[in-house]
Amino acid sequence: MNIRLFKPSLTELELKYVREAFERAWIGLGPKVSEFEQKWSEWLGVKISIGLNSATAALHLALRVFGFPKGKKVLVPSMTFSATASAVLYNDLVPVFVDSDPITLGMSIEDLDRKYDKDCVAVIPVHYCGHPVAMEKLIPWAKERNLKVIEDCAHTTGSIYQGKPLGTWGDIGCFSFEEKKCMTTGDGGMIVSNDPELLKDVKAMRWVGIDKDNWKTAQEYTAMNKDAYHWFYELKVLGWKYNMNDLAASIGLAQLERLPEMNKRRSEIIKKYLEGIKDLETIKPLLPYEPDKYVYQMFVIRAERKEDLIIYLKSKGIATGCHYTPLTMQPLFKPYLSYCPVAEDEYFKIITLPLHVDLKNEEIEYIIHNLREFDNE
Ligand SMILES: *Cc1c(COP(=O)(O)O)cnc(C)c1O
């Protein structure tokens, strides 16, 4: 047995769409990116979506569009991936680390309130593992303090929380299509908003400052008209090289078609795990998983003997991970030290188990069997 922790689910459909992009011989920023953005907006129920090369880029630009003065503070969870807080540093802002809620391990609203001060300008909740942050509390709390809300949706793709899709609660939502996430484009991301004005410069910001549909322009290069300025563009904003390309978007279009079926499979797997470990003594699910309601990118357990269990599972060919080392424990973020005891205690117990759409039932049973054996020792 050799069971991977994460694995993208790729079929003939992805290959077919990629082949079409090959045949078109347009594989950079092009019409497929627009089509994917359009379909993503319709599917999520959001006014504007812009395709990027990662969620890291989405988080960077999400903060950038507000033009916050240098040195202002942004509230971010400690229990998250580096990108959530690095995006704050990219913008010359200061991350303020917030502890986790002890039940959901999402941002604690109580600790948010403790860490807030007048220099804070924004908050970035992360729906950790896919479990929703209590947005019905966070949004009014943030509004009262005039804070912008950017949702990091890298762990969830398609959850509806209290009647509203995750990613549309805040001012801006950021999604990841990195290969470990709920759906993938290899690498990729999407920035979304219900306020198109807010994202008006993002198309230029993602593509070296040029706000033009270059595949349309390319057709005009040879169109018979009297316009000699088809090549003209003006640079008005600083841009990065953050665009999605047509190869990635082609994969994304296929993954989006398959997403309901893929999300269903994720839920099935989580239900099997929950059932299989429900009576164990030393191993418990980390979160109050609700696989019938929400989409989860990760299945994490809390284990009393973390290191022994990791080594035991290794010996059985079962890959594990640890998501995450809280950012307050990372050398890079030492200058922004902040008291986050819940997240830092969990670090010594959490183990991420394999969760991906192509996991076979016998593999899940094999993992559960080994968890039970270890618990029995
Ligand atoms: C993966 C991840 C990101 C970054 O996504 P990329 O698309 O790889 O840049 C950001 N935030 C969280 C919480 C993540 O897990």
3D architecture notes:
This protein has helices at 12-24, 31-44, 55-64, 82-90, 109-115, 135-144, 202-206, 214-220, 246-277, 306-315, 341-346, 361-376; strands at 48-52, 73-77, 94-98, 120-123, 148-152, 160-161, 164-165, 172-176, 189-193, 283-285, 299-303, 350-353. With 377 residues, it is an alpha/beta fold. The strands form 3 sheets. A 7-stranded mixed β-sheet has the order 1-9-8-5-4-2-3, sandwiched between helices. Strands 10-11-12 form a 3-stranded antiparallel β-sheet. Helix 6 (135-144) links the parallel strand 4 (120-123) and strand 5. Helix 1 packs antiparallel against helix 9. The structure holds pyridoxal-5'-phosphate. Pyridoxal-5'-phosphate binds next to helix 3 and helix 4.
What is the secondary structure topology, with strand pairs?
Blueprint: H1 12-24, H2 31-44, E1 48-52, H3 55-64, E2 73-77, H4 82-90, E3 94-98, H5 109-115, E4 120-123, H6 135-144, E5 148-152, E6 160-161, E7 164-165, E8 172-176, E9 189-193, H7 202-206, H8 214-220, H9 246-277, E10 283-285, E11 299-303, H10 306-315, H11 341-346, E12 350-353, H12 361-376
Parallel strand pairs: 2-3, 2-4, 4-5, 5-8
Antiparallel strand pairs: 1-9, 6-7, 8-9, 10-11, 11-12
Helix pairs in contact: 1-9, 2-9, 3-4, 9-12
Bound molecules: pyridoxal-5'-phosphate.
The site of pyridoxal-5'-phosphate (PLP) has 14 residues, from α3 and α4.
